[in-house]
């Protein structure tokens, strides 16, 4: 049973491997400090923060977000550490709130690795404070406990760290704020909320609700409560988790590109406008009214691009997110209505059986039959509302899918037959499709923002859906085919010369799948094989990460070596961990953690069970990657309503030559660019 703590209260911890989940209404910085028996932090190396997110036995988020997951292994902490303080702070210099009194009270929960809550604490009573120590995990007589602290600091992180005895408190606080500002500048935002007139669910005519009608469709806010705002279910971050660490229970949201608002023409003789012309200060324009008005009592006719945005690409992106929100909401309402009907029937049956006189005879049978009839009526009513909403979403999907640009389109979309190398990087990329068990005939494109904020792990092992593929070799081949299809799509949607792909194939087992890439000549170099080839590629990419990081930190981004490839880099790793020594594994972890911020991305084709010999060493690597599968698999979870979504990869149709034609065009564009 969860212990709901109040300020100053403590609770024993029965396990040492834990997670601390943090939920807040606005992006906040989450970190932790280690301290000795006297409560002093001995140095900056005892502080885990976005600029240094990993310490022995401790890992925190690398950026500000509304939701975090911090990982703790108390048994792996240094022996002289007796206290771990979980700290929260509002990021500075990014235009957000500057005091906790202006945001929702943060909620902090300590959970086991299985997600079971051990203790929780809502940090209330804050006002002018911009940093707070939320919890303490401390050791007493060999056992660990958690205490709710809630100590706030109006002076922010500098005062908080100074209070814990850190001499370099102000310098470290400035470094943390700088690291967070850089991360937020490169991050992508959650899909913008849809305006009421763009929400198709609320446009649907809903029947009047009474006490026996707990559900009336996707827009219902009746007995089931109001659904919280949408968050990205397959976006980054170690702090967001799913059943396998791929999508968070409230993971970090990824913000998006905000196209510049057109400057207003100045009037003659008027005041000078000193605002930055590239800064967006107004909402994007609404979509043009292209659809005829709906007839009374009829749902609106779906139109591609009916969301808000500065361009058709942005409108379609927002529309796809709106469809995802609508589908999640309507299925959540349906499931809640069915649960309501089940609990009602159980309650009525219990009431009947509680009277011994009703257990036998016609009166009891009639009462039971009436309860079952009411249950069937409520379920049928909920199903009818669900079918109504699904029909509307299906009609919209049929209109939107053909209108999607290349980066969002399936491989069988005719748009690929007219491929030309683009001049600009798109907003997002399609990795596959998402659907729910109730919607077998309706799927929503799975779009991730560019540039990638997380690497990809393509699972070549067993999947959770029974009866998909029994042949392990065929699954491994499909996993490599999936990697090639995603790499080809990335090459195709980036301008010529702005994306480079490297491959590590230690034993050469992926040669047949890699043939489209190798034969077209779009790879940066031949696939690396053997220990020497693996070491060479990893050394070059880790060196590139180091050089770019040093240049950016030193403010000398224009002084990079002339032979350095400044394009975004993608490394495909096949058959991991076979052929990788400890040094190579460490380099891969480094690339997964530090690479995305400087344009180096990782795509691993691996079976996690094959890497169990490495023990917990690889756990941070798996958590930092987004898991996708080569066959349909129900492993992606969203933090909004808790659905387990089935992911279907975006594969090239069998016997199609579209991949070869597109890669030939990419190779030709690269040759023209080089000349």
Write a structural description:
This protein is of the alpha+beta class. Helix content is 31%, strand content 20%. The chain contains eleven helices and 21 strands. The protein has helices at residues 156-163, 169-186, 200-203, 312-353, 362-403, 472-493, 511-520, 530-553, 582-594, 619-624, 658-674; strands at 3-4, 10-12, 17-35, 47-48, 54-55, 58-59, 65-73, 83-89, 107-112, 117-122, 131-140, 143-153, 428-435, 444-449, 455-459, 499-504, 568-576, 600-606, 625-628, 633-637, 644-649. Strands 1, 2, 3, 4, 5, 6, 7, 8, 9, 10, 11 and 12 form a twelve-stranded mixed beta sheet that branches. It has a five-stranded parallel beta sheet with strand order 16-17-18-15-19, sandwiched between helices. Strands 14-13-21-20 form a four-stranded antiparallel beta sheet. Strand 20 and strand 21 (644-649) form a beta hairpin. The termini are far apart. Mean pLDDT is 79; it is low at 185-270 and 274-281.
Mean pLDDT: 79
The number of distinct β-strands equals: 21
- Indicate the proportion of strand residues: 15-25%
N- and C-termini, Cα separation = 68 Å
Unreliable stretches: 185-270, 274-281
Assign the structural class, choosing from mainly alpha, mainly beta, alpha/beta, alpha+beta, or little secondary structure.
alpha+beta
Number of DSSP helices?
Answer: 11
The Rg value, from CA coordinates, equals 27 Å
Nutshell version of this structure?
The chain is of the alpha+beta class and 675 residues long. It contains eleven helices and 21 strands.
